[in-house]
Model the fold of this input.
Amino acid sequence: KDKEKKHTPMDIEREGMKKLEDVKPSAPMLRD
Done:
């Protein structure tokens, strides 16, 4: 179950992108 807790760099990036989209969907300039 330790592997489930470990996040790969790609997973962290995906989570960050999702958070940015969910938190500030009205700020498309952040995507660039």
Notes: The chain has a mean pLDDT of 71. Residues 12 and 23 are 16 Å apart (CA to CA).
